[in-house]
Description:
Two copies of one chain form a homodimer.
Chain A: H1 2-7, E1 9-13, E2 20-25, H2 32-37, E3 44-50, H3 53-66, E4 71-77, H4 86-98, E5 106-111, H5 113-125, E6 131-136, H6 139-145, E7 153-155, E8 158-162, E9 170-174, H7 183-200, H8 202-217, H9 220-239, H10 254-263, H11 273-290, H12 296-309, H13 325-334, E10 338-339, E11 342-348, E12 354-360, H14 362-372
Parallel strand pairs in A: 2-9, 3-4, 3-5, 5-6, 6-9
Antiparallel strand pairs in A: 1-2, 7-8, 10-11, 11-12
Helix pairs in contact in A: 4-5, 6-7, 6-9, 7-8, 7-11, 8-9, 10-11, 10-13, 11-12, 13-14
The complex binds nicotinamide-adenine-dinucleotide (2 copies) and zinc ion (ZN) (2 copies).
One zinc ion binds next to α11 of chain A.
Amino acid sequence: MTATATARRTVRVDLGDRSYDILIGPGLISAAGREIASRLKGRKIAVITDAHVAPLYLGGFMGALQAEGIDAVSLVLPAGEKTKSFEHLISVCDSVLAARIERNDAVVALGGGVIGDLTGFAAGIVRRGSRFIQVPTSLLAQVDSSVGGKTGINSPHGKNLIGVFHQPDLVLADTDVLDTLSPREFRAGYAEVAKYGLIDKPDFFAWLEKSWRDVFAGGEARIEAIATSCQAKADVVAADERENGQRALLNLGHTFGHALEAATEYDSARLVHGEGVSIGMVLAHQFSARMNLASPDDARRVEAHLGEVGLPTKMDQIPGGLPPAEKLMDAIAQDKKVKAGKLTFILTRGIGQSFVADDVPQSEVIAFLKEKLPK
Amino acid sequence: MTATATARRTVRVDLGDRSYDILIGPGLISAAGREIASRLKGRKIAVITDAHVAPLYLGGFMGALQAEGIDAVSLVLPAGEKTKSFEHLISVCDSVLAARIERNDAVVALGGGVIGDLTGFAAGIVRRGSRFIQVPTSLLAQVDSSVGGKTGINSPHGKNLIGVFHQPDLVLADTDVLDTLSPREFRAGYAEVAKYGLIDKPDFFAWLEKSWRDVFAGGEARIEAIATSCQAKADVVAADERENGQRALLNLGHTFGHALEAATEYDSARLVHGEGVSIGMVLAHQFSARMNLASPDDARRVEAHLGEVGLPTKMDQIPGGLPPAEKLMDAIAQDKKVKAGKLTFILTRGIGQSFVADDVPQSEVIAFLKEKLPK
Ligand SMILES: NC(=O)c1ccc[n+]([C@@H]2O[C@H](COP(=O)([O-])OP(=O)(O)OC[C@H]3O[C@@H](n4cnc5c(N)ncnc54)[C@H](O)[C@@H]3O)[C@@H](O)[C@H]2O)c1
Ligand SMILES: NC(=O)c1ccc[n+]([C@@H]2O[C@H](COP(=O)([O-])OP(=O)(O)OC[C@H]3O[C@@H](n4cnc5c(N)ncnc54)[C@H](O)[C@@H]3O)[C@@H](O)[C@H]2O)c1
Ligand SMILES: [Zn+2]
Ligand SMILES: [Zn+2]
């Protein structure tokens, strides 16, 4: 217990009267009842989770709530990106309303980024905004999606095109639960950890190159990597909650990544989000080199590190073939980061020196993609 | 043209960097292209309307946009309260995305409160918030629903239970279009006009008792009544955008009204929103008298005026029968204005002296409803 208390870290997201804490450390699922009861006025909770997480953690989580006298109901949805749909949004809203969750009660997302994005969106629209607690169980959700208030679902027109900004009231990141995550999903989340280094923390990236095995193994290094990532995200969000400026840097690797996710029809057997981001970050560094903004050595260093941890770094590692460059370009153009027809891209001048480029010529991107696409 | 310019009124809704204008007057549909073009950076618009409004005003509105070089697409939905559903929300989102509406472009609601609430909700969630213009064509929408940023749809659990706050960027209230509104719908909107008097403007209510025939006839008195109503709503919204306090006063008559709408299954053949509000306002005054808060004379005065203009004032005027008091109570309890199980009601001490009552006993409400329900 003393070890737990020492190991636990708290990152505060500073947003005036909507500020909230991210608790990071081992054993937080068992401690969830206490942490929630001490912060919540109401005594009712609706827990949304998925079919992979439910058998592992739902029982323990509900037990922790009951121990504190919190009345909880739960809804288990299918696992996977396809769950971020209107169909499941409707069932979440319906469960929350059926449970008569009122203003001081809360909706909880227990799961990865899919459950977090979907549940946060539902919490944001039920009664025009209900209290919301994130209990992220994937590495990606702990270091990225559970922090910052972006919520949403996918549309046939593209990823995350429908949603709201709705900040959580609390984030509980239990670092123990990552042990049951598949190695592939852990690596995918790790791509986002590396991203924070590549955005503006060259020393963190260098530390990861040295210490990644410890991060994968668990313990202090893992907690450190997660806390550093959450702090990085919290700083950006506090400075630019609605993504009018610098928050866009968090999309490093994502413009290409989202296009690849669309091209593989969000089929997680072929590509998961973090893998798309991994390939996308390598492409962003290569494209920056091609535009004479950065040295090709930096792109090679990024590719080497991500490759070493076992992440895909090239489009030809995606099974099942990809559409031609022009089609990928269409997906990019329909992405959110487009203003009055001009392409906005996150490019870089080197490791930890990324920036928002506002008018990247489409023709250059198409030519670059043609070069890189498997023949 | 000079007459038009003189008659036009502008009410400003003061919300910091989200402030916007409500333009009120004749001929605003034909002038829409000019008013929008001078305010909008983008050049694309998606217009959402319904099957009653489309044949009357969609052509003129699209023409006015085209004359200013604005590229517009339109979607026509079925008319009526049932259109405020997830099903139609999905089609609006889909049309807006298919039209590739970007950050500087806009979504327009051309219609009554149903189209305004649904379209505003879609605008609030597409790309996590798109620009939004209200062109309200019913009296109710002009004096109430188009102002203040509440948007949403209905759920099987109750009215307006799903939605967001999303302020419009502009409201264009063309007072000419009210001439084609059915007398029944005009009267329904008039209930909300009278509401502003009953909330805190006894002089306005007295003026309406005297001048209502002129308001119904059109011209200056109508513009005056609409501008006074918009100003009243704008003041409340500016003081309490998110309904944490005084904005709740706008719900005078609505707690009973919503329960009646639910009981008649949102069937507009039996009851439209404003009619529910009319009966609800009479009930709120009668209930206040029963609680010894106000004189029964005030309730009689409200009933007399609303009855004189042709609005229903008693539950037994609703065709088709109503459920028992306990059932109505359930609908009231599931309404948004419930905190930790206690009933919040808008009650009154007399004409223009309404207030928020936080702990109205359920038993009193049930006893009162039993008395008032048709035997
Ligand atoms: N809102 C944001 O700011 C933001 C940021 C980044 C990504 N995202 C979104 O996040 C989603 C990806 O998140 P993700 O990678 O967590 O996906 P996910 O939620 O699908 O989780 C990945 C898989 O791991 C399983 N899982 C989760 N926790 C587990 C555990 N502890 N043990 C065993 N299995 C577990 C899940 O059931 C799922 O099968 C994408 O939809 C992406 O768009 C959102
Ligand atoms: N958002 C808010 O703050 C707020 C406030 C009050 C009411 N509302 C909502 O507004 C809705 C009621 O609005 P409403 O009464 O405008 O209903 P509505 O939109 O259904 O319009 C009433 C009828 O009049 C028709 N119509 C509209 N304009 C016309 C015109 N100029 N000529 C001929 N026919 C016309 C419509 O097609 C419809 O058949 C309800 O859903 C209610 O919940 C919202
Ligand atoms: Zn990501
Ligand atoms: Zn109303």
